[in-house]
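Reading a protein record of the kind used here takes only a little practice. These numbers are not coordinates but entries in a learned vocabulary of local backbone shapes. Here is one such record, which you should read through line by line.
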Amino acid sequence: MLDQWDGRSLRTFLTVMEEKNFSRAADKLGYVQSTVTTHIAQLEKASGKKLFDRLPRGVEPTDAGAALARFARQFAALSEALEEDLLRTEQPRGVLKVRALEAYCVTRLPELLASYAEHYPEVELRLSTGFMEDMCGRVLEQKDDLGIVPRDPGHDGLEFVPLAIEELVWVGAPEGKGGKQVYISYGNACLYHELGESSLREAGYALHDRRSFPSVELIKRMVQSGFGISLLPKVNVEEELRVGKLAVLDFPVPTPVHQGLIYLKGKQLRPAAAAFIEWVRAGLT
């Protein structure tokens, strides 16, 4: 089967997986759509399997397509690592995909990312946000190079590099605002939500309601308005506490969490990823 595969077809396949659409994949790759169709047909012939289901609004991978994707990503990663090795350079370069919690991105990363980009101009840094389970899955599937998670996931397939202790704090509106005890968070997918629920339940606190919002800034604004309370990293609310826009609540606080970087165990880090880890660790010390 090996002599029937080629790198261009696999690259096209992965792009279709990402875009879920042949036409958008063609635009992204600079091909005409018939070229994308030909590449996928070649892979389907080589594998003897249908790789995509054609739907009215795009395509979805079949079970065979999802299985091929795992190996195609490994092939792409190996190809990039080989290219860098053949160039015999330790200079970080290429695309680096990093995923982190939105709350972490807002407070801890902007200056570090800016200085990293300035120092390593040949690296195309792609930062996105997500929650811990999602980040672990994407790193294991090699969709992302690195993840920044709120604690060690304890997974056999992942390496964990400690970064910073994250102190959490319960916050509410300044005195006199609001009456309901609505618990505001990122939602069930977020570790902070889980920790807040557990600590309140163990202390016997009853909540009026639960609401989720997609960003730390929106959560803070809703708490300031008196709509409810929230458990957030202290670093995210220090300014609001200082000027009196938020108040610390005397609620049970969970043990601080240990933020850290994760990457695939057993995989040799590319120079861009290794440099990013050292850059972030140095910037947080």
Summary: The mean pLDDT is 87. Residues 97 and 126 are 5 Å apart (CA to CA).
